[in-house]
Design the sequence.
């Protein structure tokens, strides 16, 4: 008897499957709405073609998405915290101490160190976002830019320093001269004073107050 | 001669469009878009693929059996294409005037087995050999239900000539079609369609070239243009079986529109050009159904394939042959 | 034109036969056999024996040759080496085939064959009617033999799968 059961089972299942696929075929008239992932009914988009033809059209990403890192160098106080916390060591900083405070960031923190080199190698980056959390001035952020593939992996090393070679050289010599002068001044003064000078706090330490991060909805 | 020349040109154009249509059908069923880049809506994709394929190197492995290897795709294509010679095109242009044209068609398309065997054997490759063995086993077994289901139509119409079969179904549109005039032919049509899928090695019967296990089956070792001929033959077979199915069951080149009262819709949509249009239109709908089946049903296992043919389709088609005989003897006359 | 096609078919037949006899590769001789059978079908068509041609293609080219190729393939896979036919006893074979040929020539030259214009009759119908009237016993007998063969094949297949 299973012979006829098999036949009816085959007919029924084939009919059902064919009905299902033709429904999908006909629903291809519709296209998926390009809604961002934050929209409430993002996962309800089941009908119609689902493909997004990427370079021609995009699904909007949230602007706080964890994609490419960006450093606003004018606001950077070169505190090196980001480089220290980075689990994969993708941030490379070469600081040059300034002779004196040379400006202020947009939130009022004094700038005392020049960034001769501020490189972020996005090829190494693991997109954990820790560097953006520790950044005291909030100059290091993750942007919504995700399409920056290159044909050469070295092009994934993004350089944020704006200083030219001459500027770097100039700042270095300035610092050297300053230190020489300082050393000379120390030599002229009495020896007990030099002990004091060593225990003195190093200059260039940023003074900042952590601001509460405004909550996003 | 005229039909053959027409069908050759039509087949080439059909393959270009059908490959695109197949990919689009697959895409739509799977919620995708399919080819979109080459030309508007990707319509030139097949032409780009064709250009690429023709430029490819004609690779011949050292250990192949040279002459059969080179001849095999040509034999497959010739066997399929020779089948087109007996098809009518419209009420004025008939195919080759052979006694028993339908019989010839079935005989000659069974020759493509020889080409497939040749390809598989000459490739000197285990995948190819497996593919061609499966293909031959499959085609040889499905020829029986196919022949029997065609025989049902032959019993009812009483002729082997496809043009005569078409003329028998003309007049007043849809209601004169074999499948509606003789409802006993509905099951033979399904048998014919399933066997046709198996004959043209289409999913769910694509064991000979099942990519997941046999790489490419019997055409594993072929590249470029020679591989293209295999592809052409597969689509040619699809078209051929669809046209034969149309002629046998769905009225051939007859218009489906009936006369309504004094409004002669049937006569208005008949004639040489209309006839050609209707024949090809109905065939292409059948081709679409073949594609639809392909993207719905998964591939059968070898034992399932054989039991479907020998345990289900063959007994059923023998039964239908008997019923058709009764229908012809007592119910029509 | 028709004569030209006829000559082409004759030549193809001869080439096929030559290959069958001369080649040492068994599978090549099977292909050549297929060529011979199809060319013969072509000659039948030119002689207006269309049904015979169709049957020739269906049964011999489509059936017997495939069976032969299958047999050869199975044999080679079993032993794992290419199958080479050895042309032994070629002189004896020549004598026998020549004798059969001469016998056939003698028979045909002495036979009185009525000329029938077969292009004017419905071959399928005529053959079908004579199968079921004049030759009904032979027809049914052949059907019975085929049925027995089928049952036997099924029995053998079943027996080997049980072991």
Sequence:
């Amino acid at each position: 008897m299973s012979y006829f059961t098999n036949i009816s089972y085959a007919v029924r299942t084939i009919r059902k499957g064919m009905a299902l696929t033709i429904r999908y075929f006909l629903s291809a008239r519709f296209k998926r709405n390009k809604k961002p992932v934050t929209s409430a009914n993002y996962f309800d988009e089941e009908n119609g073609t689902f493909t997004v033809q990427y370079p021609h059209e995009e699904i909007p990403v949230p602007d706080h998405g964890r994609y490419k890192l960006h450093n606003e160098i004018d606001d950077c106080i070169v505190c090196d915290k980001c480089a220290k916390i980075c689990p994969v060591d993708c941030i490379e900083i070469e600081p040059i101490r300034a002779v004196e405070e040379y400006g202020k960031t947009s939130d009022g923190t004094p700038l005392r160190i020049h960034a001769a080199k501020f490189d972020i190698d996005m090829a190494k980056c693991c997109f954990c976002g820790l560097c953006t959390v520790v950044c005291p001035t909030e100059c290091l952020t993750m942007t919504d830019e995700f399409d920056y593939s290159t044909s050469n992996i070295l092009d994934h090393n993004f350089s944020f320093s704006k200083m030219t070679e001459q500027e770097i050289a100039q700042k270095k010599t300035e610092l050297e001269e300053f230190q020489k002068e300082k050393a000379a001044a120390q030599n002229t003064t009495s020896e007990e004073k030099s002990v004091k000078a060593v225990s003195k706090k190093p200059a260039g330490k940023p003074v900042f107050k952590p601001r509460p991060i405004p909550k996003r909805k | 001669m005229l039909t053959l020349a027409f069908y050759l040109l039509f087949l080439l154009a059909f393959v270009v469009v059908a490959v695109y249509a197949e990919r689009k059908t697959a895409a739509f069923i799977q919620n995708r878009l399919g080819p979109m880049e080459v030309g508007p809506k990707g319509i030139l994709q097949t032409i780009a693929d064709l250009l690429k394929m023709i430029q490819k190197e004609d690779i011949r492995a050292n250990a192949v059996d040279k002459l059969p290897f080179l001849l095999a795709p040509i034999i497959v294509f010739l066997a399929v294409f020779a089948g087109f010679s007996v098809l009518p095109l419209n009420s004025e242009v008939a195919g080759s005037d052979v006694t028993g044209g339908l019989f010839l068609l079935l005989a000659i398309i069974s020759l493509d087995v020889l080409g497939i065997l040749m390809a598989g054997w000459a490739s000197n490759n285990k995948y190819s050999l497996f593919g061609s063995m499966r293909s031959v086993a499959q085609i040889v077994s499905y020829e029986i239900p196919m022949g029997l289901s065609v025989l049902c139509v032959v019993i009812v119409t009483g002729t082997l000539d496809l043009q005569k079969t078409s003329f028998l179904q003309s007049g007043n549109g849809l209601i004169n079609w074999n499948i509606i005039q003789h409802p006993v032919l509905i099951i033979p049509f399904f048998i014919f369609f399933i066997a046709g899928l198996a004959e043209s090695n289409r999913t769910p019967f694509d064991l000979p070239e099942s990519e997941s296990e046999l790489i490419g089956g019997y055409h594993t070792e072929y590249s470029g243009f020679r591989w293209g001929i295999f592809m052409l033959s597969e689509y040619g077979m699809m078209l051929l079986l669809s046209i034969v199915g149309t002629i046998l069951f769905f009225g051939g080149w007859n218009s489906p529109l009936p006369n309504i009262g004094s409004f002669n819709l049937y006569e208005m949509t008949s004639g040489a050009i209309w006839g050609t249009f209707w024949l090809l239109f109905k065939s292409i709908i059948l081709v679409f159904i073949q594609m639809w089946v392909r993207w719905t049903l998964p591939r059968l296992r070898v034992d399932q394939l054989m039991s479907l043919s020998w345990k289900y389709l063959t007994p059923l088609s023998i039964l239908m042959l008997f019923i058709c005989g009764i229908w012809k003897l007592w119910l029509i006359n | 034109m028709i004569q030209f096609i006829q000559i082409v078919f004759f030549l193809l037949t001869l080439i096929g036969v030559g290959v069958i006899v001369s080649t040492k590769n068994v599978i090549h001789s099977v292909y050549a056999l297929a060529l011979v059978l199809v060319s013969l079908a072509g000659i039948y068509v030119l002689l207006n024996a269309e049904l015979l041609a169709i049957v020739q293609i269906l049964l011999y080219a489509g059936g017997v040759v495939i069976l032969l190729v299958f047999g050869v393939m199975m044999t080679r896979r079993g032993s794992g080496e290419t199958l080479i036919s050895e042309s032994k006893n070629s002189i004896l074979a020549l004598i026998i085939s020549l004798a059969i040929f001469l016998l056939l020539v003698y028979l045909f030259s002495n036979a009185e064959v009525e000329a029938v214009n077969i292009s004017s009759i419905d071959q399928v119908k005529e053959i079908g009617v004579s199968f079921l009237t004049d030759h009904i016993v032979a027809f049914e007998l052949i059907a019975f033999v085929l049925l027995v063969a089928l049952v036997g094949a099924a029995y053998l297949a079943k027996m080997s799968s049980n072991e």
Notes: Chain A has five helices and seven strands. The domain at 69-167 of chain A is CATH 3.30.70.3270 (Alpha-Beta Plaits). Chains A and C do not touch (no CB pair under 8 Å).
